[in-house]
Amino acid sequence: MIKFHRSIFCTLSVLASHLLADNSWQVDLPAALQQAERENKLVLVDFTGSDWCTACIALRKNVLDTKDFRNWAADKFILVEIDLPQSKTLPDNQLEHNKTVAESYGIASFPTVMVLNPQGEVMGGFEGFVKSTADAVAELKHAIDAAPKFSKAKLTSGTERARLLYSIYTNYPTSKSFAQHANALRELTQEADPDNLTGIHHHAAVQEQAQRFLEERNATRMHSPAMGTLLERQLKEALPENRPSVLMERCQYALGTAETTEDIEKTRKMFEELVPLLPAEEAAEVRHFIKSYFRDSAALLQMLKAGRSH
User: Fold this and answer.
1) Beta-carbon neighbour count of residue 92 at 10 Å?
2) Within 219-279, where are the H helices?
3) Within 10 A of 280 (CB to CB), how many other CB atoms are there?
């Protein structure tokens, strides 16, 4: 897993060791990590754009700064805000600190909430807006559970180490901001489990194929014939865990290239093929999409063609 290198920030002497943002959010991560070590807590870092990111603002207002969340978090976390505003002025050294921290942790979108152990290693968290304290707690509990397992794994070897690391990996966030940390955790688990007792090597194969598929699609023009050929090839190669995502891409490609009502009908069948492979909530959304948009093939085709002309 990615370790936070405190030495990077030692020259930032202008930052007070316990400098606080609004509502007791600290802004000096190295100091927060030291405090977490003294108090046997974890560090919760809110990577935010406080004056431009509407989801960040809503997350703080509706969840992270509520009394319910703060009461729940009080004995568990030291709270840190890493803010990258667009209009609000921060001291130059503070802004540089925040940019360096965000880059170090591979933050890909805002908001991202990360839970770190006192060594600066990422235990988990979530990316994007969550609607309630209950939703945030559900996401963060995985990180809280991971921390003692990771500490124990450092002191063990063999099968026990492999199983501890694997149990963390199976509940680890999969969003972009956590990608480099998930990859490092997967590699650590593979090293601990050369005999594949946990099945981590299959998970690694799934993730590596998914990444390769994504890179291939990103390198191909969206609605070109080459994309259609690529998706059909990926569908044949896909491991079962990756098949739903390739099918979804194929469905979207089919919608984007439909020229006749027969094409629309074929696309509807593709979506219906996808539904049984999805988790219940996503399956319900796709069923609703099919019901809402495919009731009139001619009207849907006209809408799609009109959208392409703009």
Assistant:
1) 9
2) 225-237, 243-257, 261-274
3) 7
Residue 301 lies in domain: 223-308
Helix axes 225-237, 243-257, angle to 10 degrees: 160
Residue bearing tokens 């991971």:
146
In a domain? residue 217 = no
**Residue 123, pLDDT above cutoff 80:** yes
Q: Is-contact 271 265, C-beta < 8 A?
A: no
Kindly list the strands in the beta sheet with 122-127, ordered across the sheet, starting from the edge strand earlier in the chain: 77-83, 42-48, 112-116, 122-127
The CATH number for 28's domain is: 3.40.30.10
Phi, psi of 180 (to 5 degrees): -65, -35
Residue 58 to residues 47, 121, 124, 174, 253: CA-CA distances in angstroms? 13, 27, 21, 22, 33
User: Which residue, of 156, 173, 188, is where some domain finishes?
Assistant: 156
HEC profile for 109-143?
Answer: CCCEEEEECCCCCEEEEEECCCCCHHHHHHHHHHH
pLDDT tens sequence across 167-223: 999 999 989 999 999 999 999 999 999 999 999 999 889 988 998 999 999 999 999
Query: Total domain count for the chain?
Result: 2
**Sequence-separated (6 or more) residues with CB below 8 Å from residue 202:** 196
Does residue 230 share a domain with residue 152? no
> What pTM did the predictor assign?
0.74
